[in-house]
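Internal ticket #5521
Category: modeling
Description: The requester needs a full-assembly model to guide mutagenesis choices. All entity lines are attached below as received. Residue total reported by intake: 794.
Assigned to: D.W.
Attached entities:
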Amino acid sequence: MVSSRCYLTDVKRAGDVIDGLKPHTIFHSGPHVEWKRMAGPMRSSMIAAMLFEGWAKTPNEAVRKAEQGEVKFDSSLDHNAISCLCGATSESMPVFEVENRTFGNKAYIALPELGMQFGRYDTKTLDNLVWVKEILAPTLREALRELGGLEMEPIISQALLMGDECHDRTVAASCLFQRTIAPSVVNVSDKKTAIQVLKYMAGIDLFFLWPIMARAKAVADAAHGVEYSTITSFLAGNGTEMGLKVSSLGHQWFKAPSPTFYVAKYNEGFSDKDSNPEVGDSILVDMQGLGGGAMAAGIAHVLSTGDSADDAIRYSKEMMRISVGKNSYFRIPVLNFEGTPVGVDIRKVLETGISQVCAVGIAHNKPGVGLIGFGMVRVPMACYQSSYEAFNKKYNG
Amino acid sequence: MVSSRCYLTDVKRAGDVIDGLKPHTIFHSGPHVEWKRMAGPMRSSMIAAMLFEGWAKTPNEAVRKAEQGEVKFDSSLDHNAISCLCGATSESMPVFEVENRTFGNKAYIALPELGMQFGRYDTKTLDNLVWVKEILAPTLREALRELGGLEMEPIISQALLMGDECHDRTVAASCLFQRTIAPSVVNVSDKKTAIQVLKYMAGIDLFFLWPIMARAKAVADAAHGVEYSTITSFLAGNGTEMGLKVSSLGHQWFKAPSPTFYVAKYNEGFSDKDSNPEVGDSILVDMQGLGGGAMAAGIAHVLSTGDSADDAIRYSKEMMRISVGKNSYFRIPVLNFEGTPVGVDIRKVLETGISQVCAVGIAHNKPGVGLIGFGMVRVPMACYQSSYEAFNKKYNG
């Protein structure tokens, strides 16, 4: 997880590059979940994808097709992709390509948008999906190609020195990315398009989270499959269940019901009762030592969750206790530039009773509403317990 | 100092807006200093300005004219302007305009460039000055006018949450500024110009320091002239002497020989023996609670000076001890979002023995070399002692 050097290289069509993403198939975040067990916001995201692809004309028709099995669903992380929050990914969507040049593998994520991926399927959301596909995607594709790809670790490293924890707070990384790519955006497009694209990116403080997530998947794939390892290699939620994988234990998800938020701040008019439990693959970033593990670097994020500065510093120290190493390239200023914690060991979690802490966006539990706040969750202990039992069975049985 | 709301409104011609900036006059940083007592890097900056204005054809001719009094020198801060580092400002140069809309006054600073203002007068520097005047200035002028001016406090406030101390570390503020102005830059210029301007701004992490300095001057002018006040209202150095003003004591500078750096990091090939003592008006920013006073917000800057994270936090706490208030809009995450210290009281300095700490760029002591590193200085106690004596004489005499 420490040695990988990843590049944001391209924008491609999802169906052309994501394994198994056939017509009438939609990939979602977290461990695989069937339609009938899907949480409200994830269903919304699937509906939006069906409308976007033209597989349904109305939300009702989309629901009917899903219920009748005419559209298949599967987990992004079980393929070479990753999904943001509710994260539907279907064949016509444009995706970022991140290449792990240390290990040679690639991962994909749908381009940033705050509607479908956060559980909305209204007209504005669908219009925006078309704009993302027809305007944003070709512009960023040409711009990234002009740059010859963009090395991601220097941006993440610098962003951690600029108050990002690089999950829910990525404003610095997004600004650095925008500053780097802006001249190429201008060069490859007409004036009107360039202005639209620059404004769109500037309007999404979280913009660079999407490449960071694809990087996390490209890094996780490289770290998975080490015999005898008790390190968690994947972590994700589908809004119904949260699950983790362990490097030595193949592709089995060790799951538990999705946790709720022990601290949260909501947009006006919303409260705990509106929140869906954790949903999304972005907590893979936390598992790799950004997000919750890097909260001491991104202290200002507590303004969005209700935690204190001391909580933020404590999280990083706690994650160091359950991790086997540090990433000396991803440094935390306030901890005298110690590296972010890397490699959560399920044995250390069970020994200390400290489970992974994750910074998360909160989706409304009703279909069609979207993002309503930010909060913090802990990975359920049951995930560590069942994976440790499986480990013992495999190696000590 | 806390209530001012300032806007970056325009780019104008220095001679049109800066009081007293006539032909064959150059304004410099710090208290007024005659040519014969000027430090090497400041002389270089004056030479560059004379060459740029066409008042001299060669550096030798420029020196001769300066020696013979054919060019006059005066202090920017004694007029409605402020100068960066060595900071020559002459009539043809383009300047940012910052308007203090709370008090109605304005201040000006020459546009960002890293040659003349840092003590160079080579051909590349002079060519760049022409580019700044002919390309950068009109582009930013039109872009700022299209935006209707840019409120500065929200950018500074956000930058402090993003690891800037907002003096020597302003990369976040510069990124936020660039993200905001980029669409307008594209809109008001042709493709080639837009790309040049975006790349130029992206290449200067300190870019937004210039507007921040002009804001500091616009704020200082509004805070100056309060009867019975023992608050320092100005602080600056010319490379020979450092001086401060006290709000109640008119426009007298209380001066001492320029201090050297008690900690510093140099570019490769340079060391303490190459450094000119502190030079520049940017320490006015520190005096207002950014820079040294906000170092706990900009901890990563210690990577550029050789200090530790603990030093950074200590500086902010020390500055709170010698200041009369806090700016609740400029918050420091690691100190549980306490406001930055505002209003250094000369009595508190003398009581505690703690003098103002400032984050500074370091100019080479030989003409023509430029910036060679970053370090920290303390304001000489003599400045506080002599100003306190003057205060006693005026009010208790």
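Resolution: model delivered.
Comment from assignee: The longest strand of chain A covers residues 323-332.
Ticket closed.
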